[in-house]
Amino acid sequence: MKEETTLRGVSRRDFMKACVTVTAMMGLPFEMAAKVAEAAERADNRPAVIWLHFQECTGCSESLLRSSHPTIATLILDQISLDYHETLMIGSGAQAEKSLHDSMKANRGKYILVVEGAIPTRDFGIYCKISGKTAMESLKHAAEGAAAIIPIGSCASYGGIQAAEPNPTGAVGVRDLIKDKPIINIPGCPPSPYNFLSTVMYYLTFKKLPELDSLGRPKFAYGRRIHEHCERRPHFDAGRFAKEYGDKGHAEGYCLYQLGCKGPATYANCSVQRFNDVGVWPVAAGHPCIGCTEPEILFRKPIAEKVQIHEPTPFDAYPPVDQEKGKGPEPLTTGILGIAAGSALGAGGMFARNLKQGELKEDADHEKTE
Ligand code: FSX
Ligand code: SF4
Ligand code: F3S
What we know:
- 32% of the residues lie in helices and 13% in strands.
- A 4-stranded parallel β-sheet has the order 4-3-5-9, with helices on both faces. A two-stranded antiparallel sheet has the order 1-2. Strands 6-10 form a two-stranded antiparallel sheet.
- It has helices at residues 12-25, 33-41, 59-65, 71-79, 93-106, 135-144, 153-158, 193-206, 219-222, 226-229, 233-237, 248-251, 270-273, 331-346, and strands at 5-7, 10-11, 48-53, 81-85, 111-116, 119-120, 129-130, 133-134, 146-152, 171-172, 351-356, 359-363.
- β7 and β8 (133-134) form a beta hairpin.
- The chain is globular, with a radius of gyration of 22 Å.
- It has 2 domains: 2-222, 3-Layer(aba) Sandwich (Rossmann fold); 224-314, Cytochrome-c3 Hydrogenase, Chain A, domain 2.
- The chain is α/β, with parallel strands linked by helices.
- The site of FE3-S4 cluster has 12 residues, from loops.
């Protein structure tokens, strides 16, 4: 029997599955999935979206569109009226500019402005120009009529790789230039398309912005550290670490902390939500997390450098590797032991120094021990 189709090319089952996933990601109870689905299905509920590209690699759009399964991209594109997107629209030149200005005029005060890429500010912003205007001018102009701005990716959120030292073009994120509009950062290099979809769905369902953290990220997606849910976490807690790429520990799924994994200091949901409907994410593929959602880590700290762990994070997803069912220490205890083991085994002079009031401070030097 032919499956009922709700939205373009998406079966009812896939549609509901995506709505349930998005609802769970927002931290809402299961019953709210029906409300989210209802908001998604309303034909009059499609905000105009203007999507600007500045200094970036287009990986954010790619991540959204290259999902192995069309559900996410289709859902996103069906939930919004994407009036202007330089790499997706058919028109170009004067025709594209006309679409941009027509949409800004027709939807003034109501459209969502999505920004992909950093904005160069040095030398009056001349290092990125589109249609004769600098990125700074285009952003300020488009921001004036926007209801809210979503900088997608770490470049638009914080400057990203363009802002790495010595930052030759003076690249900055949207929040450095626009101060009078609601801004919801969706960092990541690239970010999970689900985080963008969930943010849009939240806005459509509740007609308000989600709660944000101090970096302007939705708390529902960036409220927990990678390390808390990582599938390699039981190995961290047991003191089992990959020491080199391709060694036995690496092949057997041991913790990547000693290879520089920034998971203990990175707030994101990759270890839970993963990417592209097929369950991949960097750490599962054997690469340390490089902290791509964190402005102080991404392209600021070398990939191999170990992060300091300021407090033990209890894991809550996987049983310890050597724990018999129903026995064994509490997660918090094993977390602390794991930090100590990581310190002793991996970083030479790195050691747990200060354990008071539940806070464990570590000192990292980067001597090679072996
Ligand atoms: Fe930046 Fe987006 Fe990194 Fe690229 O375009 S967040 S360089 S993956 O993708 O802006
Ligand atoms: Fe996972 Fe990295 Fe934490 Fe190890 S340090 S458990 S690989 S997040
Ligand atoms: Fe980025 Fe780390 Fe997730 S590198 S994609 S935050 S695992």
